[in-house]
Amino acid sequence: MGWESIELPDAEIALDRAWLPEPEADALFQALLDTVPWQVHRIRLFGREVDSPRLSCWIGDPDASYRYSGRRYEPHPWPPALEPVRERLSVACGAGFNGVLANLYRDGRDAMGWHRDDERDLGPQPVIASLSLGAARRFLLKKTSGVRTPHRPRAGSEKKSGRPPDAALELGHGSLLVMRGATQCNYRHALPRTRKPVGPRINLTFRQVLN
């Protein structure tokens, strides 16, 4: 299919709905499902720590420790199945990646709330390459409002505003979404729950941690 531009003001977003061919996507999905040390991470929500509604693992180079959701994570080593994918992504995106946050959504009850990938460790205009494997899920984008401050709004505040998302994308098996430039400054994104019966999904968000 090739790349398509997602037209949103003050953002640079591109999507390839079939970046990884299906046989390769199938093999990678199964390899990661079997070999990644999946964990329930603790996240800060409304001022307290709770279990995240998904399984996760921070993977990266030895010096790529990463802080998000109020905690710092030391990287797990790269699984052999991910090394060639990282190299191909670097060529496709024109950017280097020294870490990847892997999330496993076990079914439609697992989700990701509104947030930005704008941690200081990533620099002011990070390149985020998001590779999806397994069941297709809806990915929402919503423009931020007001002046940006060092502190994020509480989780769920965007939903309570009642304003619909500015874009809704279905990210399927083998799709690659790339966000760069000022996207993280100007937009939040989320993966909402669904009542539809869906199978497991693995999402890999490759990034460059600045040490």
TrEMBL record:
The Fe2OG dioxygenase domain covers which part of the protein?
96-210
Region: Disordered; residue ranges are 144-169
Family matches, as InterPro entries: AlkB-like, AlkB-like_sf, ALKBH2, Oxoglu/Fe-dep_dioxygenase_dom
Q: Which UniProt keywords apply?
A: Dioxygenase, Oxidoreductase
Q: What are the GO MF terms of this UniProt record?
A: dioxygenase activity
Q: What is this protein called?
A: Alpha-ketoglutarate-dependent dioxygenase AlkB
Query: What is the protein's species of origin?
Result: Luteimonas vadosa
Cite the source lineage: Bacteria, Pseudomonadati, Pseudomonadota, Gammaproteobacteria, Lysobacterales
